[in-house]
Amino acid sequence: MISKWIYLPLTADKQKSETELASKYADCPPVSELLAQRGISTVEEAEKFFHPSLRDMHSPFLMPDMDKAVNRLNKAMGLKEKIMVYGDYDVDGTTAVALVYKYLQNYYSNIEYYIPTRYDEGYGISYRTIDEAAASGVRLIIILDCGIKAIDEIKYAKTLGIDFIICDHHVPDDELPPAAAILNPKLEGSTYPCPHLSGCGVGFKFMQAFAQSNGLQATELENMLDLVAVSIAADIVPMVDENRIMTYWGLRRLNSNPNVGLRAIIKICQLGNREITISDVIFKIGPRINASGRMQSGREAVELLVARDFGEAYHIAKNIDQYNKDRKELDKRITEEANSILEKHTDKFQDKKSIVIYNSDWHKGIIGIVASRITELYYKPSVVLTLSNGLATGSSRSVQGFDIYSAIDSCRDLLENFGGHTYAVGLSLKEENIPEFTRRFEKFVADNILPTQLKPQQEIDAMLTFAEITPQFISLLRKFNPFGPGNQKPVFCTRRVMDFGTSKLVGRHLEHVKLELVDNTSGKVFNGIAFNKGEYFDYIHSRKPFDICYTIEENKHPNSTTSIQLHVKDINICDD
User: Fold this and answer.
1) CA-CA-CA-CA torsion for 57, 63, 68, 71, nearest 10 degrees?
2) RecJ OB domain location, by residue (predicted)?
3) 349-453 in CATH: which number?
4) Crossing angle, helix 225-235 and helix 241-256, to 10 degrees?
5) Residues 202, 144: contact at Cβ < 8 Å?
6) Fold of the CATH domain 60-318
7) Is 189 helix (H, G, I), strand (E, B) or coil?
8) Which distant-in-sequence residues (6+ apart) come within 8 Å of 388 by Cβ?
9) CB 398 within 8 A of CB 418
10) What digits encode the pLDDT tens for the residues 153-188?
11) Which pLDDT tens digit goes with each residue over 312-371?
């Protein structure tokens, strides 16, 4: 196998698992290998994996403080206290607020929601909002997808008679805020079986516990799993365990009878005439919801998601779609500016293991996307900063396998605020601290990153012959959905394939190759597409053998037929 393709053999334990599964899937040998890779060792576990059931979700009361959270909410409702549902301005935060607010509104009227503006208030809870909440009579704030580091703010709120229930999933510090309850599966000592819930997922578990404590039917809440599925896909949390169950059922809801606001977005995206997949959520639905908070106000996204009238929702969705178009233009311009700076100062950046780049004029709502683009382009942990409210504020993104949260945590004494996950962290610091932060961040990365983590590598899940790509195999492969971190779409390798004689260049600049391939194991001809691989065409057309790594895609046609296409990710020319 060429060095940039990695095919990791199963460990001894996983080989044993594959052997136990092999008889069940004797007609499709690669399936038992794919299951074993995912830690599935028995036929019973495989059946549960292939048929996710809501009955297999964990009790919400396994999460620390859940009893406290439910009791405080029940008390607030019993005393008719005013409740505020507060959340972050991104997809995860706005879906979380929409879910909790909309669900509780069915049983309680003295409730409102609030989303801070990215530019005036910034991330998390502010003193100004606490003062306004107290003045309006709020006595309980349910804060979602943020709050785990708001120690001083929540101390202040207590002096004004306001309690907090924190529903967060970001990494906590040693000191925790003095909230009435903290729901976070990442808390030290937590034994909650699914530690990587989205923020909306934590909110869902809270509402699930509330429903159970009050003897409410589960159906009404489960009908809101489309919101949870959108949050899980957009926040890129692991697609395993409970997350995969909720996404599976959320996608079913999204395809049958979605939330009114999501239905409007689906219409805007022109997704109404086909099955909506996790990719559609990541690349079409999620970015539009996110654009509201990036370009204007996340409150508009919540207004969309809690709307009951489709006409009203469609009007909001059109506004949000325009925000997304504006976002794309800004994203393109700022990424080009950042890349120009890096190319102009190659001597400064090329030998470093990380990138920290700052421009005081960049749009705060776009820098997270730009950080992702820069990381993808240079394959280094990257931090992109701009100026906001007197502070250098930014986002960071990491490469596969490197914990950027630990890298930024090592510089915490230079920061005003920070928080996030293993692969993405938001931060703010004083402008004068940027040089020292850059130096120390680079040192931490250089000391801790592995050389292999600085080069994009393609992992191969299984070696496959064309003879093994049978209808039965495709049917079982379909059941591995939904895909995401921890359950990525399988990538296969087939050795020594050849052009059937009909492959051709396509695309505006003839940069892609439309393939028709055969191997020596069957008489099957498989269609494929290799994007941006035009340089291989002369070799392919010479009818010499080459290796491909690819995913298997199903294309559904208007006449209800389905065809198979190989999405070729890379090509390796054979030596002999």
Assistant:
1) 0
2) 460-570
3) 3.10.310.30
4) 120
5) yes
6) inorganic pyrophosphatase (n-terminal core) (3.90.1640)
7) coil
8) 119, 122, 364, 428
9) no
10) 999 999 999 999 999 999 898 999 999 999 999 999
11) 999 999 999 999 998 889 889 999 999 998 988 887 888 899 999 999 999 888 888 899
Q: What does CATH list as the number for 458-573?
A: 2.40.50.460
Same CATH fold, 349-453 and 60-318?
no
CA distances (Å), origin 58, targets 53, 71, 395, 569: 11, 20, 33, 37
Q: What is the CA radius of gyration of the chain?
A: 25
Element of type H or E holding 529: strand 526-530
Neighbour tally for 433: CB within 10 Å? 17
Where do we find the tokens 């039917």?
A: 217
Segment 57-79, tens digit of pLDDT: 999 999 999 999 999 999 999 99
Handedness of CA 305, 91, 121, 65 (dihedral sign): positive
Eight-class DSSP state of 480: T
The pLDDT tens digits of the residues spanning 75-132 come to: 999 999 999 999 988 899 999 999 999 999 999 999 999 999 876 776 789 999 999 9
Q: Is 314 helix (H, G, I), strand (E, B) or coil?
A: helix
β 82-87/138-144 pair status = parallel
Rounded Cα gap, residues 468 and 367, in angstroms: 45
- Strand-pairing partners, residue 463, are 493
Sequence spans of domains, the chain: 60-318, 349-453, 458-573
Number of alpha carbons in the 13 Å side-chain half-sphere of residue 102: 25
DSSP-assigned letter for residue 284? I
CB 35 within 8 A of CB 523: no
Instruction: Answer yes or no: are the C-beta atoms of 284 and 271 closer than 8 Å.
Output: yes
How many residues would you count in the chain?
576
Question: Would the CA dihedral through 372, 373, 376, 380 be positive or negative?
Answer: negative
Tell me the HSE value of 301 on the side-chain side, using a 13 A CA sphere. Answer: 37
Determine the Cα–Cα distance for residues 144 and 199; give it in Å rounded to an integer.
6
